[in-house]
Amino acid sequence: MRAGRPNTETGSPNMPNAMQYRRTFLCWIVAALAVAPVVRAQTAASAAPAATAVERVTQDMRWLADDAREGRGVGTDGLEAAAQYIADAFAAAGLEPGGTDGFFQPFELNPQSPALAHTELGGEQVKNVVGILPGRGTLSREVVVLGAHYDHLGRGTRGYAMMSRDTAAANKIHNGADDNASGTTALLEIARILATRDADERRTFVFVALTAEELGTIGAIHYVGEPAQPLEQTTAMLNFDMVGRLRGDSLVVGGTGSSPQLSNALDTVNDAYGFVLLKQDDPWGNSDHAVFYGKELPVLHFYTNLHADYHTPSDDWDLINMDGVARIAAFASDLAWSIATGNEALDYVAVARPERVRGGDRASLGTMPDMVTPGEGMRIQGIRAGTAAEEAGLQTGDVILSIGEVKVKDVYGLQEALTTYKAGDTVTIVFMRDGERMETEATLK
User: Fold this and answer.
1) Does position 110 have pLDDT exceeding 70, yes or no?
2) Is the pLDDT of residue 372 over 90?
3) Long-range contacts of the stretch 14-19 (C-beta < 8 A, 24+)
């Protein structure tokens, strides 16, 4: 999960909603430790099949969060090895390759993209890992996407230094057991579970292990641009990011406001599990699901909350609640199955992004900047409902060139403009749309 880096519209850290904020504060004070069973460390090639869900979860977790993976940072052999491990697990589960190169969807990190402007990672080759479980019958053309990012912060260098919360941790391996070996492990277990089920009528499952999330959901942005199955046929996206620290029965599920059917579906499936579901309507969290939601798809984000080891070298496998990960994977499998086999379609709901804490008279436009596509100006990746951008008629794909008197050469120009003007100011926005220079008036909020 991405750190609370400065919000591109407010300059203040991205924070959870009020309930999650209070829970997060308590987590900094007390972090419950769930010690996993001790098993022998194994390589991907030598790992023997595990008999139970907890054993499988433990095996995957220990391998992905081992020091040998070098923190799964972009540019490391460890990230490459993790991609191969995931592809092998997909194949072993019986999934079909869904990438452009077998299970892999490789691409290059563009050094001109805003997300990489202050890193040494431009030009690196990365890959999403995509597996498909084909559907059956008349529902087979429709798709349920399940995703988790498998990258982390490496050694806290080469562009990751500002993301580590441990200022003394330079060049120390950040294993990212919870963030996000836990979500990746859950994704693998869900693939195994769903591959054993069958129905005459079922939607297709697409499993995506996403890369470069920590740099700005880059893998997710690449995937929605080149999806394995058409986005217009996608029913929902379920995201697993930091599901390794289950405490008691409390499970956070974000994005419930993105479709009116999702909350009831969660409750129905949960009758057999007994989780205390902490539902959050907001689908605009700091993880990959927000990219899918920006494409007007219903989403859910499974999450067990922050803790004191988040984005530090101490986020290790022995602090993971392995039973909890297995339990969440089983619960999510049943939920995904109910969505995939249900006759009722999920309706997308436009949800305005919750107000963030802002200093002084900082203004808000309501855009999600495209941090990947290079070029002059700031390209819009998404528009939030009920915002100044929506009211002004701006659209996804528009490239903002100026706001009022401020030239917008990149995302930093947007920040400058929203610091220069205050809420309530009406400004002229100059932008490009399909090669045509256009203007609109916007009243900032």
Assistant:
1) yes
2) no
3) 14/286, 14/356, 15/356, 15/357, 16/280, 16/285, 17/280, 17/282, 17/354, 19/278, 19/280
| Strands (E) located in 281-354 | 299-303
- For residue 405, the Cα-to-chain-centroid distance in whole angstroms is 35
Give Cα separations from 346 to 18, 220, 270, 295 (angstroms). 27, 21, 19, 14
d(CA 136, CA 142): 10
Residue with tokens 């819009």: 380
Specify which residues 240 forms β-bridges with.
302
d(Cα 15, Cα 352) in Å, to the nearest integer? 15
CA–CA separation, 102 vs 129, rounded Å?
9
Interatomic CA distance for residues 293 and 231, integer angstroms = 11
Which of the pair, 3 or 322, is modelled with greater confidence? 322
> Once rounded to an integer, what is the mean pLDDT over residues 22-44?
36
How far is the C-alpha of 66 from the C-alpha of 373, rounded, in Å?
Answer: 33
Q: CA–CA separation, 310 vs 353, rounded Å?
A: 24
pLDDT of residue 170: 66
Identify which of 407, 408, 401, 399 has the alpha carbon closest to the alpha carbon of residue 433: 399
Query: Over the stretch 213-246, which tens digit does the pLDDT of each residue have?
Result: 999 999 999 999 999 999 999 999 999 999 999 9
Pairing of strands 276-280, 104-108: unpaired
pLDDT one-digit tens code per residue, 240-269: 999 999 999 999 999 999 999 999 999 999
Cβ-proximal residues to 92 (8 Å cutoff; 6+ apart), any chain: none
Query: Do the beta carbons of residue 220 and residue 118 sit within 8 Å?
Result: no
- AA identity, residue 76: T
Per-residue pLDDT reduced to its tens digit, 399-409: 999 999 999 98
Whether residue 70 has pLDDT greater than 90: yes
Euclidean distance between CA atoms 114 and 279, whole angstroms:
33
Choose among 284, 131, 299: nearest CA to 231: 299
Measure the CA–CA gap between 103 and 419, rounded to whole angstroms.
44
Q: How far apart are the C-alpha atoms of 280 and 17, rounded to whole Å?
A: 8
Assign 3 a pLDDT band (cuts: 50, 70, 90): low
What's the half-sphere exposure (Cβ side, CA atoms, 13 Å) at 444? 23
